[in-house]
Write a structure and sequence with these properties.
Distance between the termini: 29 Å
Radius of gyration: 21 Å
Order of helices and strands: EEEHEEHEHHHHHEHEHEEHHHEE
Largest sheet: 8 strands, mixed
Strand order of the largest sheet: 6-7-8-3-9-10-12-11
Number of helices: 12
Helix content: 25-40%
Oligomer: single chain
Length: 324
């Protein structure tokens, strides 16, 4: 395994009384995709935004460390963090239409990122923008560079966002549900493109998603997140083949099957993701207990993270070997 590019340790992020992230630990390595999966409200996007310092605000409080080389991104001053964004740390957001400026041509928006960090002249930046459009497989990149965002389809706009994110060959890429609004065929193209480009450039990727089908196809490692904490981590093949946490098992059970025995109804996890506050975080036990079919008396206490070896861990009181 190559050395880690970025290491998140005991990260806690709160907004007022709400605790969005509580004790997250995960690592990103060059050329590999680490998926962060869970239902809406689990804290996935906040984790990704915090890496780039985009969750800072008047009522936000952040604890823990985000080690990037010899720097801690959680406490890095904003001017220094701004110099890293785009150049070494980049992000692809969910909706490209709200991320691109509708008043400027696509080529200019890509060239702006290049000029900001690489200090090149306008002509070289424009040439680089066309090269990037070609790299993300947009047809006729010279013409595309002169077009406005509204002239592109959703898939093409997302390719433009990927071009902007990868313009300076960042070492870390956060992809926050980059295919949510796209149809299945375009989704597969975009995710395959992200994976291929990041392997070519040795970029470490954090893929935020709720889709375990996407995880199975495009990720190397996966962390399952629930109510602000990681409940299971491991390689994709291990976690999907042998889930050790009831929540992971529930997410897998809710995936429609095209083969095998036909069921009358799709399996669901009862209830919904609760809201965690700073006051309740230390008083409740297992956060999944209210929705878990395997709940027992010990679940009144918060389960510790259990190391299963080879980079795999689970936060659950169930003993290894019991059906999760």
């Amino acid at each position: 395994m190559p050395p880690e590019t970025l290491r998140i340790s005991d990260l806690r992020v709160g907004f007022g009384e709400v605790l969005a992230v509580d004790g997250v630990d995960l690592a990103l390595t060059p050329g590999r995709v680490h998926a962060l999966v869970g239902e809406s409200g689990s804290g996935k996007s906040v984790t990704g935004l915090t890496v780039l310092g985009l969750s800072r605000g008047g009522n936000a409080h952040i604890e823990g460390t985000i080690a990037y080389g010899d720097r801690d991104l959680a406490t890095l001053p904003e001017p220094e963090l701004r110099r890293l964004r785009g150049r070494e740390l980049a992000m692809v957001f969910q909706d490209p239409m709200t991320s691109l400026n509708p008043l400027h041509r696509v080529g200019r928006q890509i060239a702006e990122m290049v000029r900001l960090h690489d200090r090149v002249n306008k002509r070289d930046a424009a040439r680089r923008a066309v090269e990037l459009l070609r790299e993300v497989e947009i047809p006729d990149p010279e013409r595309a560079a002169r077009a406005f965002p509204h002239e592109f389809s959703g898939g093409m706009r997302q390719r433009v966002m990927i071009a902007i994110a990868l313009a300076c060959r960042p070492k870390v890429l956060i992809a926050d549900e980059p295919t949510t609004a796209l149809d299945v065929t375009i989704q597969a193209q975009i995710l395959a493109l992200v994976r291929a480009l990041c392997q070519d450039h040795d970029t470490a990727v954090l893929l935020v998603t709720h889709d375990l089908g996407v995880v199975a196809q495009y990720a190397d490692e996966v962390s399952v997140m629930y109510v602000g904490e990681i409940v299971e981590t491991g390689t994709v093949s291990e976690v999907l083949a042998d889930p050790r946490h009831p929540y992971t098992n529930g997410l897998l059970g809710a995936i429609p099957r095209l083969r095998g025995k036909r069921k009358d109804r799709l399996a669901t996890i009862p209830g919904s993701v609760p809201v965690l506050t700073a006051a309740t975080a230390s008083t409740i036990g297992c956060r999944f207990a209210a929705r878990c079919a395997h709940v027992h008396d010990r679940c009144d206490d918060r389960p510790p993270v259990r190391d299963l070896g080879a980079g795999r861990s689970v936060r659950c009181w169930l003993e290894r070997g019991e059906d999760a």
